[in-house]
Amino acid sequence: MASPVKPLTQPAAAPATRAKSGTDLIRIEGGEALNGDIGISGAKNSALILMCAALLTEDTMRFTNMPTTLRDIATLTKVLESLGATIATGPEGTMAIQARNIKSTKADYDLVKEMRASFLVMGPLLTRFKEATVSMPGGCAIGTRPIDFHLMGFEAMGAQITLEEGYVRVTAPGGLKGADITFPRVSVGATENIMMAAALASGVTHIFNAACEPEIVDLGRCLIAMGAKIEGLGTSTITVTGVPSLRGAMHQVVADRIETGTYMIAVAMAGGKVRLKNASAEHLQALVGPLKTAGVRIEEDDGDVIVERAGPLKEGTNIVTEVHPGFPTDLQAQFMTLLTQCRNGGTITETIWENRFMHVPELARMGAKIAIDGNTATIAGAQNLTGARVMATDLRASAALVLAALVAKGTTTIDRIYHLDRGYENLEVKLKACGAKIERIPAGAP
Ligand code: UD1
């Protein structure tokens, strides 16, 4: 029998670096090179789904390398606790979740509106408890972000779906049944939701045109450790053979490839040499190529990645965001700031989200020259950026502004830092340790 969750050292709580009122600022004095070590955290986009997967078992799930201080993790902690799960965090990214005594299968608007990933509780709740009611999701304002593929998959598995006052209610009184599901386009979230639902369904589910992002593979590995039967991870066809129940397991969250990529671009822009610890460039080949073209040296060394730029920045590369292993949409904004510094600039075509150039007007305030035509941005190179007061608009856009500020002349103050706190652990601490002149100004400080 599973042991109840023992608090490790403290209950999951507001992280130390979290914005108190959402109005913390970050102030950066540009012009310093980066030299030193940066520890890479566990992947946010993996961690959130793994937490949802804990709803699939009565037993305790134990995670390591969880980015426990992120605001998104705190938000999902509240969602899971509202359902009746018990969550405890410990030092160095340990987290234990027990979902034995689930008292509700309804995820409320107030919590779900904060973050789209909350919608991923639907698959686990539906398959284990035969019903779930989840508010339509919110999250970053980077597009319409529909959920039709998720619902199409549940329906194919025998679920009834109703929409009631902003909530999606799904029921499957006889339990979910395996099905063949073909997604019209690759969706990370829908692939994850269906994988989790299929793990406890009766029969076999084939997911065609499945996502093959590293976070999908991480989820699959965790589910397999829990006793699930899954084949085809990392390919576009995933086969899940349902089992009657899943057990507790230990799982280490994969390193955050987007955080890794963001700091690679930071070094490319600011110059210097940084060792990114517990990181991998394996899943970042679409970024590594353009960085090398720009004159950056990248080397894997014993579980770390070393990034160095000694000479001047060279050519930019035109990029198109694509599903993995293409260029990740989550690094597009950061790469755009790099292109402002490359000799000849470049273009970025965004194919995943239609509204993901909100950082452009803010970068323009710092002197960047960027023209947008539909879903393509043309970025003029070799620009001298200057410090300004700017506003973060979404998670990755905030990171782009930090990167621009690192090379801008003078002081940049970035408002609405709560976006950054959703997805980067201790960003200002990590950059400061490498020589950046960066500080967080708490809300209300003079
Ligand atoms: C997407 C990105 C992911 C990124 C995250 C946050 C891809 C394939 N996915 O994941 O890398 O970390 O945003 O920026 O790059 N769609 C539908 N109906 C659905 C679900 C999705 O039409 O039910 C469409 C979306 O509008 C979008 C595309 O499919 O154009 C990919 O969406 P999806 O992968 O599901 O989004 P996320 O899981 O949020």
Automatic annotation (TrEMBL):
GO terms for biological process: cell division; cell wall organization; peptidoglycan biosynthetic process; regulation of cell shape; UDP-N-acetylgalactosamine biosynthetic process. Residues 29-431 form the Enolpyruvate transferase domain. UDP-N-acetyl-alpha-D-glucosamine binds at residues 116, 330, 352. The modification 2-(S-cysteinyl)pyruvic acid O-phosphothioketal is found at residue 140. The active site is at residue 140. Pfam families: EPSP_synthase. CDD domains: UdpNAET (cd01555). Its EC number is 2.5.1.7. Its main location: cytoplasm. It comes from the Bacteria. Keywords: Cell cycle, Cell division, Cell shape, Cell wall biogenesis/degradation, Cytoplasm, Peptidoglycan synthesis, Pyruvate, Transferase. It catalyses: phosphoenolpyruvate + UDP-N-acetyl-alpha-D-glucosamine = UDP-N-acetyl-3-O-(1-carboxyvinyl)-alpha-D-glucosamine + phosphate. GO terms for cellular component: cytoplasm. GO terms for molecular function: UDP-N-acetylglucosamine 1-carboxyvinyltransferase activity. Phosphoenolpyruvate binds at residues 44-45. The keyword Cytoplasm applies. Pathway: Cell wall biogenesis; peptidoglycan biosynthesis. It is found in: Cytoplasm. Cell wall formation. Adds enolpyruvyl to UDP-N-acetylglucosamine. Belongs to the EPSP synthase family. MurA subfamily. This is UDP-N-acetylglucosamine 1-carboxyvinyltransferase. The gene is murA.
